[in-house]
Amino acid sequence: MELFGYDIETIYLIGLVISGIGTLLFILFGDFLEGIFPDSFLSPTLIFSFLTFLSASGYIFEKILSFHSLLIFAISLVLALILVTLLNVFVLIPLSSAEESMVYREEDLKGRIGKVITSIPIDGFGEVVIEGISGTIAKSAKSFNNEPIPYDEKVLIIDVKEGVAYVLPYQNMMIKGGNQQ
Q: Are the CB atoms for 62 and 8 separated by under 8 Å?
């Protein structure tokens, strides 16, 4: 069968090449495009995936099957819809929610235990590291009571303001807590 003066296999192959180039360009410039078109219903990832699956399956089926070209197009269309739906449900949606779960708020750090990796001088700044299930977070730190805190000391995060964690030595908190009982 011919369409626009070209063999249908050639059209499928051209579609496959164009969707491949579009996918490559989207990989390179995708963040820019998402900035221009935020939260679009039709994701470019899904569109390029659909065109790739449609073109590839249409080309392969034209080569190996002896069905009519319209039937092959219909089969390829249904197969592309199924594959893109599976891709979206089992890959893209879980990836987008996993990306959000790695985000933390400064409020979430209050009450956590950290370790000083750069000593905190009086009226100065140091650095603490907080380890957790989601990874390791390093934060600038300042002593809550303006007392020096040495390297490798465990600290309790009391507050976080403007990206700076205000901390107290954790052992002092344990001793004070033990005396109160």
A: yes
Residue 161, strand partner residues: 164
How big is the chain, counted in residues?
181
Q: Cβ distance 74 to 54 under 8 Å?
A: no
- pLDDT over threshold 90, residue 82: yes
Which domains does the chain carry? 2-101 (no CATH), 106-180 (2.40.50.140)
Handedness of CA 79, 80, 81, 82 (dihedral sign): positive
Determine the Cα–Cα distance for residues 16 and 10; give it in Å rounded to an integer: 10
The pLDDT tens digits for 20-41 are: 898 888 888 877 767 676 666 6
Taking the CA of residue 155 as centre, how many other CA atoms within 13 Å lie in the half-sphere pointing to its CB? 35
d(C-alpha 7, C-alpha 10), whole Å: 5
Report the distance separating Cα 109 and Cα 141, nearest Å: 12
Specify the range with the lowest mean pLDDT, choosing from 17-26, 84-93, 96-105: 96-105
Q: Is the pTM of this model over 0.90?
A: no
Instruction: Mark 47-62 as b/e (b = at least 16 C-beta within 10 Å).
Output: bbbbbbbbbbbbbebb
Instruction: Give me the phi and psi of 128, to 5 degrees please.
Output: -120, 155
> In this structure, what token pair is assigned to residue 179?
């005396």
